[in-house]
Please model this.
Amino acid sequence: MEAKEILRQYISKIVLLSDEQFEYVFSHFKPLTFKKGQVIISEGDQVDCEYFVVSGCLKTFFINDEIKMYILQFSMPTWWTSDYNALYNDTKATINVDCITDAEVLCISNKDREKICSEIHQIEHFFRWRTNKGYVASQKRLLSFMNNDAKKRYEELLALYPQLYNLVPKHLIAAYLGVSRETLSRLYSSH
Model:
């Protein structure tokens, strides 16, 4: 299925647009392709876009002063990613986004998103719904980190996103869960 149809199906789960409205909305997106390992956003970059994943898998991550990687999010098809702090507050990126696999995305600038939201009420509703959904997911993940041990976090991830285990290298899953590769191996073999 082509990128345009994937985006249309995703949006139509939340709001209904006429063909003309969707064509107008889609005209504000720019299709981009990236290779495995390619960087989309680097810490320190100016960020003016967010990305809708059409195919492939991306990771959003931070590397601390001790060169330890913390993965904030994996982005699979129909997920969105960016450095939202930098995007919304016009600051430099503090996180990185790169490709775990070859990927195809649709990019929309902050300016264009705001423009179409002001012009089409349904699109404003769609983006508000999407932002709220992302906030809820982030809150659940934070609460899981505060309340659950590594085994429980691992089981939650496996239940929610079983496809990640065939798509993402184990050391990245360990970084997402906040555990060592060895701990992940023990959890993986006991499951």
In short: The mean pLDDT is 92.
